[in-house]
Design brief:
The chain has 252 residues and is mostly beta strands. It contains two helices and 20 strands.
Length: 252
């Protein structure tokens, strides 16, 4: 009997330790889009375990993003009625939901809890952060033991593309990326001799992956694709002075 109690005691310690190590993290992506585009911004979560309620306020710049609606709900307890839209013209979208059965629910790590849809109305190079704030609805998450769970939030953003059609047309004739698809290495050839150039890598859901910088000496430059998963990426190539061109690149 003493041995059984010891096993139970050890098991409880393991469970408590596992729950304590789960960090609740909310995050929004980094998105680059053209003015006039209709976009979805995913709010993802990790460490969402045994929670019975969630609430908070999402803030965005209403002069850059025009709110449309919310959709793509991961839990049955979330619906369009879980969101307060009375202040979206001031860039504030509140949310609140709870589990009516008071049984804690889980969301798989890195899954999308919900998606906010906007029309991009800002001008070139303008940036709207996507923030989680405490006003007017305080950000708070409660588990099934009625304990408020600490959390962190990774702020995302939407950047309005700063490339005009003319600038992009000019750059496309001066910078070439090959091969496409690329494996291990990407080569860049440019007639912009002496220019300092950058390559910004984004996933297809708008997440910033990395930035490569190089000086164009006139010869072919080589960039490693190490650390990138197989898939398709949006590349923005150029520099802030000349502007940037967009190109899709597949990595094998």
């Amino acid at each position: 009997m003493i041995f059984l109690k010891s096993i139970v005691g050890i098991f409880c310690l393991v469970v408590l330790s596992t729950n304590a190590s789960a960090q609740l993290v909310w995050s929004a992506p980094i998105v680059v889009s053209d003015s006039g585009d209709f976009i979805g911004v995913d709010l993802s979560v990790s460490g969402y375990q045994n929670l019975i309620s969630a609430q908070g306020t999402i803030r965005f710049d209403e002069t850059i993003l025009e709110y449309s609606h919310v959709d793509n709900f991961v839990l049955t307890s979330i619906s369009s009625g879980s969101f307060g839209e009375t202040e979206v013209n001031q860039g504030l979208l509140s949310f609140s939901w709870y589990e009516s059965d008071l049984i804690g629910k889980d969301i798989a790590d890195n899954d999308v809890a919900f998606t906010i849809y906007f029309t991009v109305i800002g001008s070139s190079e303008e940036v709207s952060e996507i923030e989680l704030i405490d006003q007017p609805v305080v950000a708070e998450f409660v588990d099934e033991a009625f304990v408020t769970v600490p959390f962190t939030y990774e702020t995302g953003s939407v950047t309005v593309s700063g490339v005009s059609d003319l600038e992009e047309s000019i750059l496309e004739h001066q910078i070439m990326l090959f091969p496409n698809p690329a494996k291990d290495w990407l080569k860049i050839e440019s007639s912009l001799v002496g220019a300092d150039l950058e390559i910004h890598w984004y996933s297809m859901n708008g997440e910033f992956m990395k930035k490569d910088s190089f000086h164009n000496s006139g010869s072919v430059s080589v960039i490693s694709t190490d650390g990138l998963n197989r898939g398709t990426y949006l590349l923005r190539v150029g520099n802030p002075t000349l502007g940037f061109q967009n190109q899709l690149m597949q990595v094998l």
